[in-house]
Write a structure and sequence with these properties.
This protein is α+β, with helices and mostly antiparallel strands and 602 residues long. It has 16 helices and 17 strands. Helix 2 (24-89) packs antiparallel against helix 9.
Length: 602
């Protein structure tokens, strides 16, 4: 059995090699093309699924947000109106009138309640169609309405819902305005009033405008055939007229009327077997449901478009890949085919190739080029490792030189002195400058920052030094605004300014001055730090320039770590043609200049 399995496996391999891997071109077509096609297919499928899921999520989120916002607005408005009904219902004057006989009611009883009704009606006129108080079947009647007809309330109809154990506040969904005998529709909220003996009865009724709810519910568009509806135990109000296939059927309406869940989402099939999506929430004021009803195919119409577009794009990409792959394979395999034909002529009687193919030039060039390339790569890698190591040492050195205990101690001591003198505002500003100085110096570990950040850094440093040394020196910063966004190696200017203070203006009698200047000359940015100190002799300046030009390891202790590291880090970052130069004239002053290229980004 084992031998038979090995034989079958060998035959399969022979078959693949004979019919699929018999040439360079067929090998690439057999191995490469299926992988590319599978990758395209998987990429398209995953992208389609992700896009579909995102669109579906966004669609449902938009509807949920619409429901939530509309519900909150209605809740706020209805709660406000309902609070007026509650306040009016518990008015002692109303209950007092309810207990009176008709002949005992005097005109003065109408005045305060009439004013109250007028205030409520005028304040909430946008939602209230009419307000009415009816006691003992018309013995006492007050109302405010845009209609002049005398209202009439069928007590038997309203008191069928009376529950002695409840507070008897009720809501009615959309219905004809029978109280004022009008053709229009209203929604209502009312309070049933009774005394303990239940012989006296009354009603306080607020009729709500249909056009108010229509405007609110139609304000949010949910597709061509989508709509919002208000659902209560006694029915539902739909915001716009649509065909019966889009309206809620009896089972779905009953489900929404009796659900205990405050919010949710479900689907059902309408009379033409199309899926409808229902998203609902609950209005707290009256426990009515507000629901969005929208056809699923309309809500998710973009999903089908994305699916079709993705399939078409995958087909086009596969066709293009097949065509381009065959063109590229043909170009690549042609030299190998020629070489193979020449080598096919080699046999025991003919051991040499044709003259032009002896020692194939292409293979030699390829081999030699590859060998040279590897040698160069090893050289570059060694150089990069050395430069990175040197860069880390330089960075550590410059950070160590900046965050030194001496500078920090002197600054903190100066802050203490300001605090002791009661100059808390100056101390606070100095602390802020110190924190900003270290924050920019650290720069989240970034080696390169913008010139603007570097200028801010030296402003903090100069502020601290100015606070420490008072009027010993002044400074001026003149940097062109159009170079502020270009990158620079961080902590490049601070060592130059430190040298200008300690080796320049502090060694000079009288007030010293430091000028920081920045400008662009073509594609090169120049940043200069100049002081009017005692300057440097020609001999010492030449020694300094020689040390700047030497390797980092060749330290001669003429210049500090700061200047050396600034020059080397700039060269590593931007190239050997950039860096630091120093010019000085004894008795006049010293100018340190940095040159960097214009480069976008950090």
């Amino acid at each position: 059995m084992i031998r038979r399995g090995i034989l079958i496996k060998s035959k399969i391999i022979d078959f693949i090699q004979k019919y699929f891997l018999y040439s360079f071109k067929s090998t690439i077509n057999t191995l490469y093309l299926p992988i590319v096609i599978i990758c395209i297919f998987i990429t398209g499928l995953v992208s389609s699924r992700l896009a579909t899921a995102q669109i579906e999520e966004n669609a449902y989120k938009n509807i949920t947000d619409t429901i939530f916002q509309t519900k909150n607005y209605l809740d706020y408005t209805l709660s406000d109106v309902f609070s007026q009904l509650v306040s009016l219902s518990y008015d002692s004057r109303v209950m007092g009138l309810l207990a009176k006989e008709r002949e005992d009611i005097v005109p003065e009883d109408y005045i305060p309640l009439h004013k109250n009704l007028q205030i409520i009606y005028s304040r909430y006129n946008t939602i209230l169609e009419s307000v009415l108080i009816d006691l003992n079947e018309g013995d006492f009647l007050l109302y405010n309405s845009e209609y002049n007809s005398n209202p009439h309330i069928d007590y038997e109809e309203y008191f069928t819902n009376y529950d002695e154990s409840s507070e008897n506040f009720y809501w009615l969904n959309i219905h004809r305005n029978r109280v004022f005998n009008q053709e229009g529709n209203v929604l209502s909220t009312y309070k049933l009033l009774t005394l303990n003996n239940a012989s006296a009865k009354g009603i306080i009724l607020f009729n709500l405008r249909e056009d108010f709810f229509e405007g609110i519910l139609n304000r949010s568009l949910i597709g061509e055939n989508g709509y919002l509806t208000l659902i209560s135990p006694d029915g539902n109000y739909e915001s716009k007229e649509l065909g019966s296939q889009y309206q809620l059927n009896k089972d779905t309406l009953h489900k929404l009327q009796n659900t205990a869940s405050e919010n949710g989402r479900f689907t059902y099939e309408n009379e033409i077997n199309k899926k409808m999506i229902v998203v609902y929430d609950t209005i707290k004021t009256n426990n009515w449901k507000i629901a969005a009803v929208v056809p699923e195919e309309e809500l998710l119409s973009k999903i089908n478009y994305i699916k079709h577009f993705t399939i078409a794009l995958m087909v086009i990409m596969i066709v293009l890949v097949v065509i381009l792959t065959n063109i590229v394979i043909k170009l690549i395999s042609k030299p190998f085919d020629r070489l193979a034909k020449q080598m096919g002529t080699v046999n025991e009687n003919h051991l040499v190739l044709e003259e032009e193919m002896s020692g194939p030039k292409e293979m030699k060039v390829l081999h030699n080029g590859f060998t040279d390339l590897m040698d160069r790569i090893h050289l570059l890698m060694d150089q990069i490792r050395l430069e990175q190591e040197e860069k880390r040492r330089l960075e550590f050195a410059i950070m160590q030189s900046q965050i030194n205990p001496h500078f920090l101690y002197n600054t903190l001591y100066s802050i203490k002195g300001l605090c002791d003198m009661g100059l808390t505002k100056d101390a606070s500003q100095m602390i802020t400058a110190l924190s900003n100085f270290f924050r920019i110096g650290i720069s989240k570990g970034s080696e390169v920052i913008s010139i603007e950040e570097e200028i801010e850094h030296i402003q903090n440093y100069l502020y601290i030094q100015e606070m420490r040394y008072g009027d010993d020196f002044s400074y001026e910063i003149d940097v062109m605004p159009d170079i502020l966004s270009y990158p620079i190696v961080k902590l490049s200017l601070q060592p130059l300014i430190e040298n200008a203070i300690y080796h320049g203006v502090k060694q000079k009698r009288g007030q010293g001055k430091i000028l920081i200047k920045g400008y662009a000359d073509g594609d090169v940015i120049h940043l200069q730090v100049a002081d009017n100190g005692n300057g440097i002799s020609k001999e010492k300046l030449q020694v300094i320039l020689n040390e700047l030009a030497s390797m980092y390891e060749e330290k001669n202790h003429i210049i500090g770590i700061g200047l050396k590291s600034v020059n080397e880090r700039i060269k590593i970052q931007f190239g050997r043609e950039y860096g630091l130069t120093i010019a000085s004239e004894e008795g006049v002053g010293t100018t340190s200049s940095i040159s960097i290229p214009k480069q976008q980004g950090g």
